[in-house]
Amino acid sequence: MDKIKRNERLAAMTQILTASPNRIFTLSHFCELFSTAKSTVSEDVAILQETMKQFQLGKLETVTGAAGGVRYRPIGLGATGRDFVEGICQRLREPGRHLPGGYLYFSDILSEPQLVQGMGTLIASQYYDAHVDFVLTMETKGIPVALMAANALRVPLTIARHATKVYEGSAVNISYVSGSGNIETMALSRRAVREGQRCLIVDDFMRGGGTARGMIELMKEFSITVVGICFVLAMENPKHRSIQGERSLMVLRDIKEGQPLDIRPADWIE
Fold this sequence. Notes:
- This protein is α/β, with parallel strands linked by helices.
- The chain has two domains: 6-73, Arc Repressor Mutant, subunit A; 77-265, Rossmann fold.
- The protein is built from seven helices and 13 strands.
- The chain has a six-stranded mixed beta sheet, with helices on both faces. The chain has a two-stranded antiparallel ribbon with strand order 1-2.
- α1 crosses α3 (38-54), α4 (81-92) crosses α5 and α5 (113-124) packs across α6.
- The mean pLDDT is 92.
């Protein structure tokens, strides 16, 4: 095998690391891949660390210990994070998105891969140190963003359903009050999670937090700790609030007939 040049190694390492966020790669892995010395790989890692820091492309961390190495963590979206969310807000302010009954149409936003990946990365960047074991969402609109958050955290995605499925085996079922005030059912397979794990709840929209409260109660049935609750969009001052301490990417004031929608990025997004 011909000697691999440094620019070739850097390109390959960047692709490998960014394609598997939050995964630890040992230096030996790259030594064997490129047939080079560990000191050379360490120099390559230092170059990548400085480059990613300079252009705010994420964070490349070295992990010490027997199972140590290097891992890539997407940290928000760099300097463009707030601009990214503001761009989505502008689209949501477009006329015609206000639906009868006080609803907002944004299913198209949740169907665009680049937008969904960016939103998932922003959410995940707040929970790298929370030791999340899995991301939990409720079917169905929250699944794309929750999946991208799980990918950035390198953990599984677990989906609570409105009804049990035969192919999922025995399940735990609970009843909860949804944001619209209706009594709904939520179910999760007993094989999906394990007692003592830690989960991050991610969903698409919070009106009063009824569905999120249902997911919290569902996790209590499994003796699982909820480390955070995140939404794509949340009402700013709901009449009835079922949860506290949640985050959202965007905040929506009360929807009023005939008035422009007031949607803005959340304050925590820099």
